[in-house]
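I have been asked to look over a protein record a colleague put together. Alongside the sequence sits a line of tokens, each denoting a local backbone shape. Please read both lines and tell me whether the tokens look consistent with the sequence. I do not need a full report, just your reasoning and any doubts. I have pasted the whole thing underneath without changing anything.
>
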Amino acid sequence: MEFITSNYAPVMFGGLIIFLLLGFPVAFSLGACGLLFGFLGIELGVFPSSVMAWLPQRLIGIMANDTLLAVPFFTLMGLIMERSGMAEDLLDTVGQVFGPLRGGLALAVVFVGALLAATTGVVAASVISMGLISLPIMLRYGYDRRLASGVIAASGTLAQIIPPSLVLILMADQLGRSVGEMYKGAFVPAFILVGLYVLWVVILAIFKPQSVPALPPEARIYREDNGSSGYASLAVVMGISTAASIFLAAHMADVHTWWTGTEVLDVPTDEKVVTAMCGGTFIAFVIASINRVLKLGMLSRLAERVTFVLIPPLLLIFLVLGTIFLGIATPTEGGAMGAMAALVMGFARRRLDMPLLKQALGATTRLASFVMFIMIGATTFSLVFQAADGPKWVEHLLASLPGGQVGFLIVVNLMIFFLAFFLDYFELSFIVVPLLGPVADKMGIDLIWFGVLLAMNMQTSFMHPPFGFALFFLRSVAPDKPYIDRVTHKAIQPVTTMQIYKGAIPFVLIQLIMVSLLIAFPSLVTGSLDKKVEVNMEAVGAQMMDALQDAESYGAPGNDPFASQPAPDAEQAPAPAPEGELAPPADGGYGSDDPAKALQDAMGSGSK
């Protein structure tokens, strides 16, 4: 028993591992382990019985947490957008734009995955949508099955790191940081990761062109009456839109100065990108609208299609991320506006009816309940674990690692990588992150950088063969038997599970490269954050002392600015007091250093 009481925290952590290995659901494993070791610790005298009395307050705090309201809002927004056919339209249109290039369909999947991530934030919706729509087309035109599977699964997992990501919301909540700051920190790394995916597809197009063929001419449906492709018109619109975006980004500080009425010298990069992108998009929308309303015929079918299909998701991105980055709305309010906008867009497009809405609401309720139960179990476990000095045990275990901050980050990321084989990001966020956050904070590691780093690492949990959830989602919609293609009428062979696993491996390695870049270059995250205002407390203290000394000298005799008459000379006798009033002492003060004697003198003079 002495061994158990002296090592209660590691024994408790080992008990949790046993619960999980027995196959119990994570939420109930956390709660049961916390309650069991809580009552056992009280019996053994490890901590007082009052520890369990704190539990109701902790649970009430979960229900009162406004930040977590963003989870159901963003989930509902994503599911409505997915069910309203936005993914299908995007993949069809962007596929036509990039189709003539080798690897064009794969590039279209990457770009659409990024757009879906910025508007939905739900991995399952993105992977299933792109698997149902893009995979048959890529198989039809001869894409390598491993690449097709890997690029769809990897692009779907971009919803983990591109705001409004659910994992970033949970990470901010567990680390005690702002969700808006976490979104800003993840902005640049997320798009670097998209760039690495694109680079991998381009490399394959150069060195293995047979694995990523171009779309054949007969499959390009948006053509003009004269047979031209319409790319020239699209290039002109994109050029005007890009020029407007660059001009707006270059003069963003002037716009802020005009809007607020006060001089603004610097604007954060993420704010510039989002606002400039939306400004350029608005210009393109105005051009396309004028062309359609007035029937000018200046734009090709492809240019009009691209403009009107891309506007809704980009508008939704500005409504959600733009208002958050500009400080107009909190993440919870941004999620609420996004959900409402998705409802309006779905009904306006006549793609959303009551049965689909009920399905979206039901799926949102299940996910929100899942998160709530895990949080209740994690809170129960962490309460008892903290009472048993578990954080100190973790701190001593990790702070003594060689290599300082870098050694700590390498070990932690290796641990997260291997735990992600068995646990998803919800479980990692509620079990592991609360243990690591305080240690990182004491080591001087910026918690926004730490949170984005862990979120990037947790993204691999969706891609790990053989347990990655994105691979399971893709397996559920990929053909598992030979079938006849409805367009070419040719027999298409199925996609095997091993091909899906092999296709995921290069993208897992790309994600690990991105984790390494974040460790090596923290400015990729911290450079997007608002500059911290550093206060020199010593200078503030010296300023306060000077102010006090000035006040003392100000209140000295002869220096009273409120006195209407100069102070009397010491030799001048005071004027006699009117009859019935107390006579002031001759020295102008209380007449004595002893307050009691001064009071007696005053009362005596008054009685006379």
About this structure: The radius of gyration is 33 Å. Strands lie at 483-484, 491-492. Residues 354-387 form the longest helix (34 residues).
